[in-house]
Amino acid sequence: MKHNIKTFNILILALMAILLDFNVVHAENYAGGNPEIKAKEQTQKLTETKNTDTTKEAQEGMVVQEPSAEDILQQSQSLSSESDPSRYTLGVNDVIEISVLRHPEVTGQYVINSEGKIQYEFVGDIKIQGKTKDEVKAIITESLSKYIVSPDVTVKISGYNSKVVYVIGEVGNPGKIYMRGDTITIHEALLQAGLPLLTASTRKSRLITPSKEGKASQKFVNVEALLYEGDLRENLVMKPGDTLYIPATVMAKAMRVISPVAQPVGAAATTGRTVTTGF
């Protein structure tokens, strides 16, 4: 009985070996000896080369359509003008300094309250929320003209507190960035946040814009191309409430998971007592 089982197993193994050899030979003959398959392979190679040529031509055409240096310069100038402090619109918690020549009694610093107003001497409450400092100067001058002949008024913004963006993640100083204009560029926000760290995945950054509907919009930003290649197309404009997220690399995340586990093991290894003998 055992002899029959052994012979049966040997026959099965032999049949499997024959089938494997047949499949290998059939595949080789099918791939190498059949002229129709060779012709198909040649046509596929020709189509692939044509496709690569067309993609190269398309890429060359796209390069021609890229914006010129003048367009990029105009874009950067428009961005800088939008973040101009003179166009800053005042908001709640901002601090302004009003000085009137030869009249110290109406000179001082004033904080904009939750109603968007300041409490000014002789005049009372003045609503200045949403106005620029030049517009506030005109309002103060007109109000003081009832009490002072030709008042010489100067208005300065001494505290920018109402407009904030956030830079979080792998940067030197993550947190709030107080804006000195109604908008701020990503480049300027990164400079104020201390630039990305070595652990930052700068090609996968995201600009997150909140929404009252609960669905925030996200845009991917290549911070590396912006900072180290000068690609101004990545220099997007941030508005109050926006968040720029600089993620960590995969290696940095892995090390942060491993290090809490490795430190107790290393500490336990160093607590062992060394016993010396006289031999």
Could you characterize the architecture of this molecule?
About 14% of the residues have low confidence. This protein is elongated. The longest helix has 32 residues. Among the domains are: 73 residues, 2-Layer Sandwich (wza like fold), CATH 3.30.1950; 89 residues, Outer membrane lipoprotein wza domain like (Outer membrane lipoprotein wza fold like), CATH 3.10.560.10. The strands form four sheets. The protein has a five-stranded mixed β-sheet, with helices on one face. It has 279 residues and is of the alpha+beta class.
Strand line-up in the sheet with most strands? 7-6-12-9-10
The CATH homologous superfamily of the domain at 164-252 corresponds to Outer membrane lipoprotein wza domain like
Hey, roughly how much beta strand do the residues contain? 15-25%
Q: Provide the structure class.
A: alpha+beta
Radius of gyration, Cα only, in angstroms? 36 Å
